[in-house]
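Protein modeling request. Please complete all fields; requests missing the sequence field cannot be processed.
Requester role: graduate student
Desired output: 3D structure, token encoding
Chains: 1
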Amino acid sequence: MNPLYGLDPRGIRDWNEEYQVVKDFPSDNISQRAQKDRAVAKIYNDFLQAATEGAINIVKGNIIPLNPNEAKRQQVFVYNYIFFSFTIDVADCYKDLTTQENNPSWTQANHDMTGLKALQYLEVTGLNYLATALIHYRGHRVLAQSIIPGILNNSELASLAEYGTVNEQKTI
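Delivered output (172 residues):
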């Protein structure tokens, strides 16, 4: 077992910065498109590997939560510059009424991932979204996301929560 629990030994990577940079590579011709797709795949695969290792070790209890006094299913984690949270089951909330599915968090998280996939296909210029992974391990579903710039700076959290921005409402 790796004692670093998914931590990249080469140093902390800013997954969001890397992901946004390669998403903005030009793709005007086939050669540029191939280069962009390879770069996105490389970073996203690295992110998935780190997120999977981190989620497994969160479930095993090897990583300390940011809010240890909360109920286990409400705990959140930041590890290897990735934000982790559990999907939470709430009866009849976000339930997909078109299926036999009885697990609301399963349905909600899958719909969130489907929406992100649709945004990726649209390739809207200037639209940024987080690298996201959903890891299912030993009956737990852990959501892993790249860190939103500025979210770890407590002085900026109030504007992020209220307006969706961390730069004094200049961009939302």
